């Protein structure tokens, strides 16, 4: 049957062989060095020497002594027998005829290699589990895996799987409950009432205030910008972000609580006890204070990019340049009559001459041309066809109107 949070397969593999060890594992964990051989050499009979070697290497590989020392893969027995020079491995079956022998050998192995029983370090291990659960909030299975490594590193023989799993589950639940009680204790009655009301659906509304606060603006628009500012104002008015949290509460645990509060439904949160419910809401509202302000800034950035900068760039790409008729007109009439400004010709813009392109008249026009039919006017028209406004978008006359030189 499953043991707490472990499956049947995981519980069955705990502290046991799971298939035959690989060649690399055999050479690393089952190789007998000089100290091992010296200790094994004190046994009498091949069955005792091989059985002693099996218990020694099994404790080294799986972390504890097996109830049946011979419950090991055949590859392990053959590998140890080759090192000890035991020709008939079937003799090892005689090792369990006297049960007290295997217990005596276990005591000798523990003394020689400094192995300790779990009961001797149970208090220290419990403190390690409590610190791990308080600071990280990791799951029970994660703590279990790392707890086994901690016991192996500290040369502690693994206890039974039920003993270890129940201890880890109990200590982790106590640490989590202590965290909730700590956060619940710093809330005033007014703050508790405000947080509790977040889970209620106001009259005429379709969702609770918590659901509405968690849903930020999605489409950049002026109306959504107004809603985002109102949402940020509501969240900041609660004033939970200015609270001083207990110094012992890890920031990671607050993040975990806020992450859960951002995904759990209001119905699920209402099912929790008061301490867990309000502790989760406290962490969620503190997170939402910063998130609501960030949402406003992001929305403002989108509005600036899409509504102002983006549209101006699109108009520029389409060639919608600002009109500049005076610049193009002045350029054409400066060349009117084939002269230049240094030769006495002066550009005059008057009401009688008109304000459009070709409507200006030049004081230095040749007699008889009336400023419209002579060579000077033709030169001015040619100049106007060649003119380029500051946008570089003008086109020759007759092919495309110059948007930078006239308004039509």
**Helicity range:** 55-70%
- Compute the number of structural domains: 4
Question: What's the story with the biggest beta sheet?
Answer: 2 strands, antiparallel
Question: Overall pLDDT, averaged?
Answer: 80
* N-to-C SSE string, H for helix and E for strand: HHHHHHHHHHHHHHHHEEH
Query: Cα distance, first to last residue?
Result: 88 Å
Structural class: mainly alpha
How many strands? 2
Strand content: under 5%
Query: What ranges have pLDDT less than 50 throughout 5 or more consecutive residues?
Result: 330-378, 381-408
Query: Order of strands across the widest beta sheet?
Result: 1-2
What's the total helix number?
17
Question: What does this protein structure show overall?
Answer:
By secondary structure, this protein is mainly alpha-helical. It has four domains: 8-115, no CATH class; 119-185; 189-316, no CATH class; 319-408, no CATH class. Helix content is 57%, strand content 1%. The protein is built from 17 helices and two strands. It has helices spanning 8-13, 23-29, 34-40, 46-62, 74-84, 99-113, 122-136, 140-153, 161-185, 189-197, 209-214, 222-238, 251-263, 266-271, 274-317, 325-334, 375-386, and strands at 347-348, 361-362.
């Amino acid at each position: 049957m499953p043991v707490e949070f472990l499956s049947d397969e995981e519980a069955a593999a705990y502290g046991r062989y799971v298939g035959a060890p690989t060649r690399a594992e055999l050479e690393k964990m089952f190789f007998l060095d000089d100290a091992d051989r010296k200790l094994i050499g004190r046994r009498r009979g091949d069955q005792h020497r091989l059985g002693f070697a099996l218990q020694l290497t099994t404790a080294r590989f799986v972390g504890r002594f097996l109830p049946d020392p011979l419950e090991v893969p055949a590859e392990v027995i053959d590998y140890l027998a080759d090192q000890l020079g035991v020709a008939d491995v079937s003799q090892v079956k005689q090792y369990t005829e006297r049960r007290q022998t295997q217990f005596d050998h276990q005591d000798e192995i523990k003394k020689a290699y400094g192995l300790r029983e779990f009961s001797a370090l149970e208090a220290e291990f419990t403190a390690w589990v409590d610190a791990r659960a308080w600071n990280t909030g990791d799951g029970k299975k994660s703590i279990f895996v790392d707890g086994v490594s901690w016991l192996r590193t500290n040369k502690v023989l693994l206890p039974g799987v039920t003993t270890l799993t129940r201890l880890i589950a109990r200590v982790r639940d106590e640490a989590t409950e202590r965290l909730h009680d700590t956060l619940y204790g710093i809330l005033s009655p007014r703050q508790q009432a405000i947080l509790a009301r977040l889970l209620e659906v106001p009259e005429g509304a379709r969702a609770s205030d918590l659901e509405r606060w968690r849903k930020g603006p999605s489409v950049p628009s002026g109306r959504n910008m107004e809603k985002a500012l109102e949402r940020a104002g509501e969240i900041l008015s609660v004033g939970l972000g200015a609270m001083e949290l207990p110094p012992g509460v890890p920031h990671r645990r607050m993040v975990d609580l806020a992450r859960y509060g951002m995904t759990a439904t209001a119905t699920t949160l209402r099912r929790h006890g008061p301490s867990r419910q309000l502790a989760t809401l406290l962490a969620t509202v503190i997170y939402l204070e910063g998130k609501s302000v960030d949402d406003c800034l992001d929305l403002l950035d989108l509005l600036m990019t899409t509504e102002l900068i983006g549209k101006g760039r699109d108009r520029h790409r389409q060639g919608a340049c600002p009109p500049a008729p005076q610049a193009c007109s002045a350029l054409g009439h400066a060349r009117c009559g084939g002269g230049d400004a240094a030769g006495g010709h002066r550009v005059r813009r008057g009401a009688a001459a008109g304000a459009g392109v070709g409507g200006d008249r030049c004081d230095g026009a040749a007699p008889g041309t009336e400023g419209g039919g002579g060579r000077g006017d033709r030169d001015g028209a040619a100049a106007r066809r060649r003119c380029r406004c500051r946008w570089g978008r003008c086109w020759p006359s007759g092919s495309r109107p110059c948007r930078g030189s006239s308004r039509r």
